[in-house]
Amino acid sequence: MASDIVRNPNALAEALAETSRVVEAQLDALLPVPEGAEARVVEAMRYAVLNGGKRMRAFLVMETAQLFTVNRTCAARVAAAVEMLHAYSLVHDDLPAMDDDDLRRGMPSCHKQFDEATAILAGDALQTRAFEVLAEEDTHADAEARCELVLALAHASGARGMVGGQMIDMASEGKKLSGPEITRLQALKTGRLIQFSAEAGAILGRASQPQRHFIAAYGRDLGGAFQIYDDVLDETASAEELGKTAGKDAAQGKATMVSVLGLEQAKAHAELLAEQAAGYLESFGERGALLQELARFTVTRKS
Fold first, then answer.
1. Is residue 18 a part of any domain in this protein?
2. Which positions ≥6 away from 141 have C-beta within 8 Å?
3. Whole-number pLDDT of residue 5
4. CA distance 224 to 101
5. What is the pLDDT of residue 105?
6. Each residue's pLDDT tens digit, 96-117
7. What is the domain count for the chain?
8. Which family does it belong to (predicted)?
9. Does some domain include residue 303?
10. Does residue 28 have a pLDDT over 80?
11. How many angstroms separate the most distant Cα atoms in the chain?
12. By CB distance 3.0 to 4.6 Å, which of 1, 15, 243, 254 could disulfide with 105?
């Protein structure tokens, strides 16, 4: 790629940081702390969603929306909704009944900082607030676009998406799965929400079907690369680098591409998917350069 954007080695890091700033300001505004006893659950919601992270899903929303000249505030609202949905899944994943993890992004998990019951309620409320934000008129003037966002996120996050993937993941602990079975598990558990994050910008921009096809394919392969490389990092990175407990996949007998292919082949497969993802954006020219760079960053990151 010959873009000046990509020649700047700090361009992606700067864009991710700017996205974090914009989206966190939206999250702060969308989650005001009320008076009364219910304030505790909102404080837990804010703790879960405002405690850092890469904001990759938010970046996907913002950057794909920019491809279609979507109003930045509208895109930021959708990005914030995605981050709420993602945060809810992490809060619940960390619970003792699920992955039982005391650390998240280098800080105590929500149920350790508050308590299990509050964490469950905070996750529930983050999920419902995400859909509420998508349905509000400030997100898009076109009711059809809002409905499409709600439906697409529901598909990505429900029993045939993220929740279904989590169920398969839990049911498969200690079992030997094939490569295709693991690919499906990871596509549901992680990939669908990443794919939605990419497609959301195209939905907001009322993009043509061919453009949506390319964006969806990009998000699908990016999600695959991201999860496989997460498995690689779980084997190779420290808890300090990850900000969460390292080595848990092997300890819990989880099915991963690393367990099937081995470390080096799994890494090579993630890199192939990242290159495929980048290739789907060639028709967008330099406007898609940062998204292409994100695909390559996904398989070179340290956490």
1. yes
2. none
3. 43
4. 23
5. 85
6. 999 899 989 889 999 999 999 9
7. 1
8. Belongs to the FPP/GGPP synthase family.
9. no
10. yes
11. 56
12. 243
The whole domain housing 13 covers: 4-298
pLDDT at 241: 56
* Nearest alpha-carbon partner for 28 in 66, 80, 96, 90: 80
Map tokens 């028709």 to a residue.
283
Indicate the pTM of the whole model. 0.91
- Alpha-carbon distance of 149 to 182, in angstroms, equals 28
What percentage of residues in the chain have a pLDDT greater than 70?
Answer: 92
281: burial class by Cβ within 10 Å (0-12, 13-18, 19+)?
A: buried
In a domain, 119, yes or no: yes
Mean pLDDT computed over 45-55: 93
Look at residue 303 and tell me whether its pLDDT is greater than 50: yes
Q: Is residue 8 part of a domain?
A: yes
How many residues are given for the chain?
303
